[in-house]
Amino acid sequence: xxxxxxxxxxxxxxxxxxVRPFAANPWKxxxxxxxxxxxxxxxxxxxxxxxxxxxxxxxxxxxKHADGTDFLTLPVLYDPTTSSTKEEGTYVGDSFDxxxxxxxxxxxxxxxxxxxxxxxxxxxxxxxxxxxxxxFTLNGVQLAxxxxxxxxxNAELAKANFARRAGVARWEDLEIPLGSEERKNKMAAxxxxxxxxxxxxxxxxxxxxxxxxxxxMYADFIVGGWLQMMRNCLPEWEELRGWHEGxxxxxxxxxEEWAKVS
Length: 262
What we know:
By secondary structure, this protein is an alpha+beta fold. It has nine helices and six strands. Strands 2-1-5-6 form a four-stranded mixed beta sheet, with helices on both faces. A two-stranded antiparallel sheet has the order 3-4. 31% of the residues are buried. The model has no long low-confidence stretch (mean pLDDT 93).
């Protein structure tokens, strides 16, 4: 197979110009792609086109909205190397499933890198992923979501879609004003939630910035995906970086090795 056909396609949500990744779940998968040194290229999809793109790719939803309708979102990974006379490659449409797929399909050829999932840790990773998603969704998204880096060309449509899904009449109803007492209280609650619900799990800080100290694993990329969203959307990012003795800033910085955008 020629080199071009061996490059995977990664579908990610585009920010406004300059285009950059910002959504948490695509970032988890991007970290995994870079960590496994898998050749890939990014296909950027504007927010209003995400659902239709997933439909056109024929990748079923892996989640539901609160009203029970399909949540058609990204990332999606396409691997053309599995093409045959009967099948046109493989599509994987969930960040966690993408990590599993990469670990199985593209293992370290010489054991030169640590595994994404240490032995017998898959179920624990799945539970950890759900826990971290809930923690950031309940605390961070309400503070950061209003400041997502929309493309001005389609911002009004994207905002209307988000407002509808959130059950509010206007996008502006989702704002928690900067400097307000409400925002200060929610930031304090966010800090406390990260402290009791996640920071205490980093028990090897004297050895390194990762959950296991010196060696990263997919669990670190799960947290890193959310930190990337906070970095791109939360006005108080520098404040968050310093919480819990600088734990989140140190983790974010350490993960930069696998944060390239291809």
